[in-house]
Amino acid sequence: MQKVLARQSSLAMFFAAACCSSSKASIHGMNEALQLRSAYTPTVVISHAFPMAHASHSSSRAAPPRALAAATVALALLASPLAALAAPQLQCSFDVNSETHHKVFGLVTDPYTTEAVAIGNRFRFKAVMLAGEGGAGVQSLNLYVYYNTRRQPMIMQHTRFLYPAVLPQPAPDALTGRVSLYSPLLGKELQYQCALAEVAP
Predict the structure, then answer these.
(1) Which of 8-12, 51-55, 75-79, 116-120 has the highest mean pLDDT?
(2) Are 145 and 190 in contact (CB under 8 A)?
(3) Going by fewer Cβ within 10 Å, which terminus of the chain is more open, N or C?
(4) How wide is the angle at C-alpha 85 spanned by C-alphas 81 and 89, nearest 5°?
(5) Among residues 92, 142, 141, 94, which one has the least CA distance to residue 120?
(6) The pTM of the whole model exceeds 0.70
(7) CB–CB of 106/87 below 8 Å?
(8) Measured in Å, how far apart are the chain's first and last C-alpha atoms?
């Protein structure tokens, strides 16, 4: 009887040890499974896709004003050479002895070396046009009309204009109106008119 009890207790101890080792093995297996799961669990990265898309959308909205600004600058650069090349030009027409003479005059740098031009056989005309500061506009314009005598030309008229207006498409007599002059000896008539125009060469 004692041998039977001893065998039964040894068997109980064996089954208890087996169960304990089995539970330990299962617990260890669960721990390894949890570790493997945590090791292979993918990391979630929150990307800023929506803010980036919004930023690119706002930059695309900002593009049209930049394009307009660039186009404006390009047009200004294209137009500035034309504006820089435009220069004042005095355009005059003369009627003497039933003949019409057309003359044009530009800016001069030295008023003392400017020569008069012949208008027919009896008259001469000189225009001294000086530029304003920095070459902009006209500072002064002096017109001289001479009558040819045997000894030397005699001045008949001197007209001075200070800062005259330069117009893009002026009337033929916009500056002087129509002027009539008569020679002192024979009374020969000279009629002329002038306009100050802005032209591009």
Answers:
(1) 116-120
(2) yes
(3) N
(4) 155
(5) 94
(6) no
(7) yes
(8) 139
| Domain layout of the chain by residue ranges | 1-44, 54-85, 87-199
In a 13 Å sphere around the CA of 80, the CA atoms on its Cβ side amount to 6
What span, in angstroms and rounded, lies between the C-alpha atoms of 38 and 132?
86
CA proximity to 138, closest of 146, 129, 147: 129
64-92, pLDDT tens digit by residue?
Answer: 566 665 565 455 444 444 445 679 999 99
Could you give the CA distance from residue 64 to residue 172 in angstroms, rounded to a whole number?
Answer: 46
The string of DSSP codes covering the chain is -HHHHHHHHHHHHHHHHHHHHHHHHHHHHHHHHHHHHHHHSPPP----HHHHHHHHHHHHHHHHHHHHHHHHHHHHHHHHHHHHH-EEEEEEEEEETTEEEEEEE---S-TTSPPPEEETTTEEEEEEEEE-GGG-SEEEEEEEEEEE-SSSEEEEEEEEEESPPPBSS--TTTTT--EEEE-TTT--EEEEEEEEEEE--
Write phi, then psi, for 120 (nearest 5 degrees): 70, -150
Alpha carbon distance 88, 167 (integer Å): 9
Q: Quick: pLDDT tens for 103-151.
A: 999 999 889 999 999 999 999 999 999 988 877 789 999 999 999 998 8
CA 142 to chain centre: 37
